Amino acid sequence: MKTVAVVGSQWGDEGKGKIVDLLAADADVIVRFQGGNNAAHTLVVNGEKFILRLVPAGALHAGKVCVIGNGTVVDPIALIGEIDELKRRNHLKDDGLLRLSYDAHMVMPYHRAIDRAREARLGKSAIGTTGFGIGPAYEDKMSRMGLRFDDLSNFAAFKEKLERNVREKNLYLKLVLKAKPVSAAEIVEQMRKVRTRLTRYLGDTSVLLAEAIAAGQRVLFEGAHGVMLDIDHGTYPYVTSSNCGASAVFGGAGVAPGKLDCVLGITKAYTTRVGGGPFPSEMKGKLAETLRVEGDEFGSATGRPRRIGWYDTVLARHAARLNGMWGLALTKLDVLTGIDPLKICVAYELRGRRYSEIPPGRHLLEKVKPIYEELPGWREDITQTRSLAELPASARRYLNRVSELSGVKLAMVGVGAAREATIVIENPFRA
Ligand code: GDP
Ligand code: IMO
Ligand code: MG
User: Fold this and answer.
1) Residue 317 Cα, ligand 3 centroid: separation in angstroms?
2) Ligand 2: which residue has its CA nearest to atom 23?
3) Which pLDDT tens digit goes with each residue over 285-339?
């Protein structure tokens, strides 16, 4: 298959970055199509760790075209920082290989200020956002007051729009949120530098992708976040402000429906989430702490400890249905080593009734009780295994049960953070 989308099937941090980096070896173009620097995708290559937030996780393979599509919201200062850091580490040498859609919206300092001030005021019922201004930036896009990279082409007109926005946002910050206003003059100066640094990357990325697909090139779409953080299909309002599934590829990259051959769902062998909101299979106590430490479950964007839970196949079926998944890449199986027994959530119970799908009314996720199936664990170190046959029988049984209950075949299994610590059953680009 030639065009593949990687999507998160839980609450993010499933290991999308690692799998995108692995698949990028076979791709010509790697594309981000939604989200912003609230994403944090970790890659471990030759013992070196990289965290990518806006630059596609194909950037560590020389010669690949990396595209940041129109559906993303881009903090230009964060992007420049990321580009500089990658260049410092000897990557992204050819500026011609990074393309940024001129239709992408910019995250401005006032978006960050609003995001943080709102969260502070919400107190206990805060969403637990990353504080990077993502929600406010998408709001402005929808209300048609957003600033796009395209606007930088006429700096005088851009400055006028920016100053008008700052006037409105400062009223909101001061009068409603009781927060500090931002300085228009400072932002204008920052944006002058942004214009100098980023103009070279701008282009029509929809046309670029259409041409690449027509030429038979392989294109890899890199989803951010996960289906349960999707603005429509997640645990609203404890979600992010974009669609995070495969359907977002079309609008967010400017690619026609029908041009996507395959969706690969990324799922962790257990479940995590950062921030507030319902989490039916959440575990508390010592076991959660063990998994948090063994799995290094601390947010890569904000350093917050991730909440931990058992694998939830109700949510897996939800994600599979919404995305039409061809296969699953299950990561972090190695982290479950030594835990016995293992539990898989197979359904929910609510007021004496069993539900194998999320009960109608997403708010009910706060109230459901998980129904678990227990499976035996294993003790053997599996980090060096590179085929299913080398895994202990109980690890294979766990994988089979997850795949069976999720209704999706297994394509890959992660047994360590490094690029090569992966059992590849079927590579979608070679299928
Ligand atoms: P993403 O946001 O979906 O790309 O995931 P993150 O990078 O935020 O979080 C996944 C974490 O798990 C990162 O620290 C990865 O290096 C690590 N990781 C990915 N796959 C595996 C795996 O199979 N085993 C282990 N032990 N770690 C993994
Ligand atoms: P990756 O791509 C995990 C969560 C935040 C918060 C909610 C809203 O690395 O999987 P936002 O700043 O987006 O308005 O915050 O969404 N969130 C993520 N959690 N991984 C992510 O991205 C996330 N992106 C957003 O923690 O609960
Ligand atoms: Mg992440």
Assistant:
1) 22
2) 225
3) 999 999 999 999 998 767 889 999 999 999 999 999 999 999 999 999 999 999 9
| 265 Cβ below 6 A of ligand 1 | no
Partners of 343 in beta bridges: 374
The CATH number of 3-95+204-430 is 3.90.170.10
> Do 78 and 54 contact (CB within 8 A), yes or no?
yes
- Give catalytic residue positions: 13, 41
**Can you tell me which atom of ligand 2 is nearest the CA of 229?**
16
Q: Which residues are near ligand 3, the ion (C-beta closer than 5 Å)?
A: 13, 40
Domain boundaries, the chain: 3-95+204-430, 105-200
Nearest C-alpha neighbor of 383 from the set 418, 342, 409, 343 = 418
CA of 6 to the centre of ligand 1 (A): 14
| Ligand 2 center from residue 158 Cα (angstroms) | 30
Q: How far is CA 431 from the centre of its chain?
A: 25
DSSP string covering 9-61 = SSSS-SSHHHHHHHHHTT-SEEEE-SB-TT--EEEEETTEEEEESSS-TTTTS
Compute the distance from residue 41 Cα to the ligand 1 centre, in Å.
Answer: 8
DSSP character at residue 147:
-
For residue 68, the cross-strand partners are 32, 100
Pocket test for ligand 1, best of 41, 52, 225, 332 (most atoms within 8 A of CB): 332
Give the CATH number of domain 105-200: 1.10.300.10
- Region at 202 (left for phi over 0; alpha for psi -120 to 50; beta for the rest): beta
User: How is 364-391 classified by DSSP, letter by letter?
Assistant: GGGT-EEEEEEE----S--TT--SGGGS
Q: Ligand 2, closest atom to CA 41?
A: 9
Give tens-digit pLDDT for 14-56.
999 999 999 999 999 999 999 999 999 999 999 999 999 999 9
pTM confidence score: 0.98
Count of positions (residues) in the chain: 431
